[in-house]
UniProtKB/TrEMBL annotation:
Pathways involved: Amino-acid biosynthesis; L-proline biosynthesis; L-glutamate 5-semialdehyde from L-glutamate: step 1/2; Amino-acid biosynthesis; L-proline biosynthesis; L-glutamate 5-semialdehyde from L-glutamate: step 2/2
PROSITE patterns, sorted: GLUTAMATE_5_KINASE, PROA
Source species, domain of life: Eukaryota
Quaternary structure, from the entry: Can form homodimers/multimers.
Designated name of the protein: Delta-1-pyrroline-5-carboxylate synthase
Documented EC number(s): 2.7.2.11, 1.2.1.41
Any Pfam family matching the protein: Aldedh
Organism: Solea senegalensis
Family: In the C-terminal section; belongs to the gamma-glutamyl phosphate reductase family.
GO biological process: amino acid biosynthetic process
UniProt-listed InterPro entries: Aldehyde_DH_dom, Asp/Glu/Uridylate_kinase, G-glutamylP_reductase_CS, G5K_ProBA, Glu_5kinase/COase_Synthase, Glutamate_5-kinase_CS, GPR_dom, P5_carboxy_syn
Protein location: Mitochondrion matrix
Length: 776
């Protein structure tokens, strides 16, 4: 049996939506094979969204979760308006009808009792058990009316289609159903489909799903799968009350969410109980999903009830984000990023327990490999450079970063040897030792942070630098490099693992080569302890925005200032300003704003500054006050908070050193700021009052660099106020733990009636024995 009720709205609206231009639709594909990777889901044109009972039903199982339903409708309408063809398979009629019938029964009982017993002598009223078919009959019209009202807010038409098993098993009825749905989609109407629960027979045992042409419609999971295959849908999104498919029942200690599920993995799954409502369960969902996958439709099972994700779960899935469990027929050859992280953490703990000499040996061996295998490295780098030049997408500055040379490799090797020396005094170093009481000693010692994720763009020299710092600090490391340097990164990673192998910790450094999006990696908050982005300010901002549960070490902007005081030396000003701006304009420590004391205006020094900048072809933007002093001024700056990253800078005028400090605090990024002056008192006040990661006196801003600071190398420059700040080297990749050594002590020993007293004596700090070194 099939009932159809079209929610057409106004006739004018129908005429406007009869034919949708094909140019607005996403790229289609030939149906017959499902998408192989999540990233391809953005090309899905025809999408079925299945809403489970737990998604649309309230917690009391009587009535609908209107808030969740409204957010889902909004997402479906948005995708429909993008040119996709959306269909909804919905539950909820029974719950809606149950709410309605309960209300009617209570009202009827209260009236009868009032007539027989009086208004003040009502007896306790018990509700009879409500039959599901009756509830469905009473709730179907109300459920559809609710969908109509919600979709109308987005100028989207809906149509109700009720089906049973016969509509699929009878060829004529199946053709009629297919024809109806095709016509509705052609007219830009969202079909809302449900089993006709008012007449459907009781659920059958799990004897269906035996093949592509055999599937019983016994719940909305099987209905959605059958419908998706019948309509040749590109994607089926099944929303439930769990995050996705787990390898064991959710809530058990070792349960892990499966990111990608392959048909051959069925035997490794242990299913739990059904959800609180509905007649299906996860096992039914998986069987239906695999049936749809076999029929050429991609499937994602995800949580549609979580308040933090419901408002964007459907759109996130269509955008290819790592949400729920993605069903794929193609299993990648390599490990998943989750598996890589687990292997790296395990091997990293072994790395942290090595003797410092062993970690230094690994780094020195890597330094040797960089020079011994330079031909292989440079050959791989030439491939990357040729591909980048032919593509023509990279700007000159990024091509420079991508390029390696024998000189660069030698410099890298020197830097690594410096890190190897520093590794001798890193993990397990005692920072504080206290005798709490007799035979009770407390130590604070350095330990690795854990698992680091370093995301870097087209800069392959970053890989050995960061790897060496991770090895020296005993941290496991995940590396995600830019695709522009894929060949170079692969060779450098092989050399890194070769060096690690000499002490059995080859897997401590992993290179992520899968199709993982950066945003997906940033969601692994239960596996990654710190993210370090190395790249453009936009990359850092994107990662800081995406990594909601993982700390990010870095800076989003490098708005560095140079303040020229009234007592500045002419020679020093010209040298420092030129180097700060012109040495490497794209660097994060390059000068972006030049602050000039007002007494310097219209002096020979001011003229020399302007002439030097013009000779260096630096484009000048005038600040508001600077513009007011000039008859013909340069173009006024759009903002005083701009990182130009090129041969451009802003010039502004201030009245004093204190005004310069206020300006920097207001418009700077707390990165690196400089004062040029011969007045020592003024300089010391500037150094003390300015709250930036790096503050210099009579020195170029370009000195804000880990190598120049003697750190050997840096993983980045941090403007944060917690943990590490400024150029971050080896020390910034360590944290601490407390170790207490006692002799059967309890807190009762120190109570009022106890026999011991606190001493809290500070003891000399030294290195613990090698056998006492701990990992985290």
């Amino acid at each position: 049996m099939m009932l159809q009720r079209l929610a057409f709205g106004s006739r004018r609206h129908v005429r406007d939506l009869l034919i949708r231009p094909l140019t607005q639709a996403p790229h289609g594909r030939v149906h017959g094979s499902s998408f192989a990777h999540r990233g391809e889901l953005r090309h899905a044109k025809r999408i079925v969204v299945k809403l489970g009972s737990a998604v649309v039903t309230r917690g009391d199982e009587c009535g609908l979760a209107l808030g969740r339903l409204a957010s889902i409708v909004e997402q479906v309408a948005m995708l429909q308006n993008q040119g996709r063809e959306m269909m909804i398979v919905t539950s909820g009629a029974v719950a809606f009808g149950k709410q309605r019938l309960r209300h009617e029964i209570l009202l009827s009982q209260s009236v009868r009792q009032a007539l027989h017993s009086g208004h003040n002598q009502l007896k306790d009223m018990s509700l009879p058990v409500l039959e599901a078919r009756a509830c469905a009959a009473a709730g179907q019209s109300g459920l559809m009316a609710l969908y109509e009202a919600m979709f109308t807010q987005y100028s989207t038409c809906t149509a109700q289609v009720l089906v049973t098993n016969l509509d699929f098993h009878d060829d004529q009825k199946r053709q009629n159903l297919n024809s109806t749905l095709q016509e509705l989609l052609r007219m830009n109407i969202v079909p809302i489909i449900n089993t006709n629960d008012a007449v459907v027979p009781p659920p059958e045992p799990n004897s269906d799903l035996q093949g592509v042409n055999v599937i019983s419609i016994k719940d909305n999971d099987s209905l959605a799968a059958r419908l998706a295959v019948e309509m040749k849908a590109d994607l089926l999104i099944a929303l439930s009350d769990v995050e996705g498919l787990y390898d064991s029942p959710p809530g058990t200690d070792d349960a892990k969410l499966i990111d990608i599920f392959y048909p051959g993995d069925q035997q490794s799954i242990t299913y739990g109980t059904k959800s609180r409502v509905g007649i299906g369960g996860m096992e039914a969902k998986v069987k239906a999903a695999l049936w749809a996958l076999q029929g050429g439709t991609s499937v994602v099972i995800a949580n549609g009830t979580h308040p933090k994700v419901t408002g964007h779960v459907i759109t996130d899935i269509v955008e290819g984000k790592k949400v729920g469990t993605f069903f794929s027929e193609i299993k990648p050859a390599g490990p998943t990023v989750e598996q890589q992280t687990e292997v790296a953490r395990s091997s990293g703990r072994t790395l942290a327990s090595l003797h410092p000499d062993q970690r230094s040996e690994i780094i020195c061996h890597l330094a040797e490999l960089l020079t011994e295998r330079k031909e292989a490295i440079l050959a791989a780098n030439k491939k990357d450079m040729d591909l980048a030049v032919n593509a023509g997408h990279l700007p000159p500055a990024m091509l420079t970063r991508l390029s390696l040379s024998p000189v660069k490799l030698n410099s890298l090797a020197i830097g690594l040897r410096q890190i190897a020396v520093a590794a001798q005094d890193s993990v397990g170093r005692v920072l504080r030792r206290t005798r709490v009481a007799h035979t009770l000693e407390l130590e604070q010692i350095t330990v690795p942070i854990g698992v680091l994720l370093v995301i870097f763009e087209a800069r392959p020299d970053c890989l050995p630098q960061v790897s060496a710092l991770a090895i020296a600090s005993g941290n496991a490391l995940l590396l995600k490099g830019g695709k522009e340097a894929a060949n170079t990164n692969s060779v450098l990673h092989q050399l890194t693992q070769e060096a690690l192998s000499m002490h059995g910790v080859r897997e401590a450094v992993q290179l992520v080569n899968t199709r993982e999006e950066v945003e997906d990696l940033c969601r692994l908050d239960n596996m990654i302890d710190l993210i370090i982005p190395r790249g453009s300010s936009q990359l850092v901002k994107d990662i800081q925005r995406a990594a909601k549960g993982i700390p990010v070490l870095g800076h989003s902007e490098g708005i560095c200032h140079v303040y020229v005081d009234a007592d500045a030396s002419v020679d020093k000003v010209i040298k420092i300003v030129r180097d700060s701006k012109c040495d490497y304009p794209a660097a994060c420590n390059a000068m972006e704003t030049l602050l000039i004391h007002r007494d310097i205006l219209r002096t020979p020094l001011f003229d020399q500054i302007i002439d030097m900048l013009r000779n260096e072809r630096v484009k000048i933007h005038a600040g508001p006050r600077f513009s007011s002093y000039l008859t013909f001024s340069p173009l006024e700056a759009n903002s005083l908070r701009t990182e130009y990253g090129d041969l451009e800078c802003c010039i502004e005028v201030v009245d004093s050193m204190h005004d310069a400090v206020d300006h920097i605090h207001k418009y700077g990024s707390s990165h690196t700021d400089v004062i040029i002056t011969e007045n020592e008192e003024t300089a010391e006040q500037f150094l003390q009052q300015l709250d930036s990661a790096c503050v210099f006196w009579n020195a170029s801003s370009r000195f804000a660099d880990g190598y120049r600071f003697g750190l050997g190398a840096e993983v980045g420059i941090s403007t944060a106020r917690i943990h590490a700040r400024g150029p971050v080297g080896l020390e910034g990749l360590l944290t601490t733990k407390w170790v207490l050594r006692g002799d059967g002590h309890t807190t009762a020993d120190f109570s009022e009636h106890g026999t011991m007293k606190y001493l809290h004596e500070n003891l000399p700090v030294g290195q613990p024995l090698a056998g006492q070194r701990d990992s985290n």
